[in-house]
Amino acid sequence: MRCKWTTLENHPVTVIELAGEIDSERELEPLEEIAQKEETEHVAVLLEHVTYINSRGVGVLVRLKDILGKRGSELYLVGPMAGVVDVIRCLGGDDVFNMRDSLQDVIREVEG
Amino acid sequence: MSEHAASPVGERKDRIRAEVAVQMLEGAKKRFDGVTRDVSVSGFSAFLRTVAEDSIRESIDYSVLAPEEMKQALAKMDLSVVLDMGFPIGPAALVVMRVENSWRKDFDMFAAFEFKSLNESEKVAISDYVAAQAEAQPPVPAQAEEGPAREGVGEPEVVNVNFPARYFYLAHVRELCERLSREAGFAEEDAMKIKVAFDEVLTNAFKHGCINYGVDKIDVNLTFDDAGVFVCVRDPAGRPFDYRKYREFDEKHPDSSRTGLHLVDRLMDGWAVNTKPGKFTEVSFFKNRASREG
After folding, report:
1. How many CB atoms lie within 10 A of CB B294?
2. Angstrom distances, CA of residue A28 to CA of A17, A31, A59, B199, B243
3. Are B191 and B178 in contact (CB under 8 A)?
4. CB within 8 Å: B254 and A58
5. Does B158 have pLDDT greater than 80?
6. Cis peptide before B148 (omega within 30 of 0)
7. Residue A75: its pLDDT value, please?
8. What pLDDT sits at residue A42?
9. Chain B window 242-281: which residues touch A at a Cβ cutoff of 8 Å?
């Protein structure tokens, strides 16, 4: 799995771009560290290049959402592939996560 | 005698899942459970023999019932089954303890039995009955019920992978399963679902069924045929667990436990767990080509 992140200038959104297969909690530890930083407001996780996710991967995203939720911030999942959406839905994630088609949708929403 | 072995896929509901709690002499309860797709009494008897590792022998004092009659008898809870357990309790009678709607896909009902207390005359009568049955006919070989039964099976091709319990291998074996599923004709979406279910089962085997990292081995069988794919994953620990707890999965907190079997249940067409304590745990599932929506 590959992971890189950046904070958008002039927008209160930290963008985390993931790629490959999300199948291990350990690989996703940096995400929780990012979420715990004080300067992090909302987080958009780009999933367009994630080809696979399992229950452990979804579990990490839930923890990420919980960390952010405690200080009133939101987690957005952006552009997941159909197979990834299937797994998230099967685990009830469509009620838990904010899923958006594009980063622009997220930016519009948080600045709305 | 009712024959269901060749039932088409659509008739899979003619299977019953049953659980038998056996009160051992030392007071401990031992549980057996399994699946029968033959809901005739004879099929049910064969199922019981299978799950009890041949300790339950032929003997049911009922004439053969049609599947619908069997269901009705279970629903009314007026069915009892006479068994010769051999050891440790000898001949005994099982009565229906409770019947639930099926919690597993494609089963009509779940029936739990318990042993009926027998008086001396009943014990003698059952012993006589069992002896007469044993003389009258040779023992019927137990039906092989390895995991969920599948119908419409053509010529199967089996791929066996046996590998040391190292994290390194899991992703490769997972990939192999997906690729083979695609090669076998599954659509990309279904191949992905098979991969997800397989990954969950494989990871459980790795985490809970392999005590010695890199030494214990996980055994995988992938069977492809006209009906679909049948997957069986065996670990060497044989740690019993209550797999029915997958129902406790909380969709509002999807990072909680029970997610693995919950996913298998949602994505696949059927699954089963078979544990021999201290020897192995097998988790198997199948996905039909003409699958229902997962």
Report:
1. 18
2. 12, 6, 10, 18, 28
3. yes
4. yes
5. yes
6. no
7. 94
8. 92
9. 250-255, 259-260, 262-263, 266-267
Q: Which residues of A touch B196 (CB under 8 A)?
A: 52, 54, 83, 86-87
Q: Return the pLDDT at B244.
A: 63
Residues of A in contact with B200 (CB under 8 A): 54-55
Alpha-carbon distance values, B105 to A55, A74, A110, B109 (Å): 21, 37, 42, 10
Structure tokens, B75: 């629903």
pLDDT in tens, A32-68: 888 888 788 899 999 999 999 988 888 888 888 989 9
A59·B260 Cβ contact <8 A:
no
Q: How far is B38 from chain A (nearest CA, A)?
A: 31
Candidates A73, A74, A101; CA nearest to A85 is: A101
- For residue A82, the chain B residues in CB contact (below 8 A) are 189
ipTM value, please give it.
0.76
* B175 contact residues in A (CB cutoff 8 A): none
**Cα separation, A75 vs A69, whole angstroms:** 8
Asked whether the beta carbons of residue A59 and residue B255 sit closer than 8 angstroms, the reply is yes
Which is higher by pLDDT, B137 or A6? A6
